[in-house]
Write a structure and sequence with these properties.
The protein is mainly α and 127 residues long. It has 2 domains: 37 residues; 77 residues, Arc Repressor Mutant, subunit A (Orthogonal Bundle). It has 6 helices and 2 strands; from the N terminus they run ααββαααα. The chain has a two-stranded antiparallel ribbon. A hairpin with a 6-residue loop joins strand 1 and strand 2. The radius of gyration is 17 Å and the shape is elongated. The two termini are 33 Å apart. The mean pLDDT is 92.
């Protein structure tokens, strides 16, 4: 396993209210508090690196989503690939997207290629 994926214990302090919410979320998701906290930290760091990205739950599980749109990142990446990078034509056919949103999704997809390719493969199998 690459060193970047190794989990290391760290210590920190949270307010009683945050602890209560973490424990409730862990129970809801049937996970440990540590697992929930690790996911929240990872998502928070990704959102900070890629402003405009949020994370949502759905039938395919938790996934990157473009805030304020009806599009998951993998869907925009799939469109971008289908249009062979012709952003002007893509924008013309999909007025619900703007150029900046496409750039955000493509940039996220480049950094997290395995994640996005996994959703694309899953979608291909379902279709």
């Amino acid at each position: 396993m690459p060193a970047t994926n190794q989990r290391k214990p760290i210590s920190g302090r949270v307010s009683e209210e945050n602890e209560r919410q973490l424990r409730a979320l862990a129970r809801q998701e049937r996970r440990t508090v540590s697992q929930v906290l690790a996911r929240l930290v990872e998502e928070g760091l990704r959102m900070r690196r890629h402003p405009g990205i949020t994370f949502v739950d759905g039938p395919q599980g938790r996934r990157a989503h473009l805030a304020g749109t009806g599009f998951d990142v993998w869907e925009v990446v799939a469109l971008h690939r289908a249009y062979v990078g012709d952003v002007a034509r893509l924008l013309g056919d999909h007025p619900g997207l703007d150029r900046r949103e496409i750039e955000i999704a493509v940039a996220y997809g480049e950094v997290h290629r395995d994640e996005i390719d996994g959703f694309l493969a899953e979608n291909d199998q379902a279709g």
